[in-house]
Design goal:
- By secondary structure, this protein is α+β, with helices and mostly antiparallel strands.
- It folds into 2 domains: about 60 residues, no CATH class; about 45 residues, SH3 type barrels (Roll).
- About 40% of the residues lie in helices and about 25% in strands.
- The chain has 2 helices and 5 strands; from the N terminus they run ααβββββ.
- A 5-stranded antiparallel beta sheet has the order 4-3-2-1-5.
- Strand 3 and strand 4 form a beta hairpin.
- The longest helix has about 35 residues.
- The protein is rod-shaped, with a radius of gyration of 25 Å.
């Protein structure tokens, strides 16, 4: 019995929904529950699907670990700039130079406080020696 891909209807504003490990496990259980008793799933097919499930779970775990590592690296980079003189690009395109007096988390990202303004790490132009 072949498993057909599940088509998800999504609104354009919602983006594309990605099937996760819970969806895969639900699909596998449903397939087992509704299989033809006269032609049960081949052992090899079942083992292959379990291997796919295991691989999917490991990929999810690796992805989460990489995201956490990236977040910690961003934090380390930001906190390492406290007390350093930097040049940042303001919203109007001008370049502002000053000392990073603090780092804070704002809207899920770390921002550098230079003077009385907050700048994202993406706005960092140069670290002045």
């Amino acid at each position: 019995m072949q498993v057909q891909p599940v088509q998800q209807k999504t609104e354009p504003a919602m983006g594309t929904r990605v099937l996760g490990k819970d969806d895969f496990l639900r699909l596998l259980v449903t397939q087992l529950r509704h299989q033809d008793p006269l032609q049960p799933m081949n052992d090899r097919e079942f083992v292959a699907q379990l291997a796919q499930f295991s691989a999917l779970e490991q990929m999810v775990n690796v992805s989460q670990a990489v995201l956490e590592l990236a977040r910690r690296q961003e934090a380390a980079a930001a906190f390492g700039l406290v007390g350093r003189r930097v040049k940042v690009q303001a919203e109007d395109g001008s370049v502002v130079e000053g000392v990073v007096s603090a780092v804070r988390r704002q809207d899920g990202a770390f921002v550098l406080v230079v003077g009385d303004q907050a700048y994202t790490l993406d706005q960092l132009v140069e670290v002045v020696a």
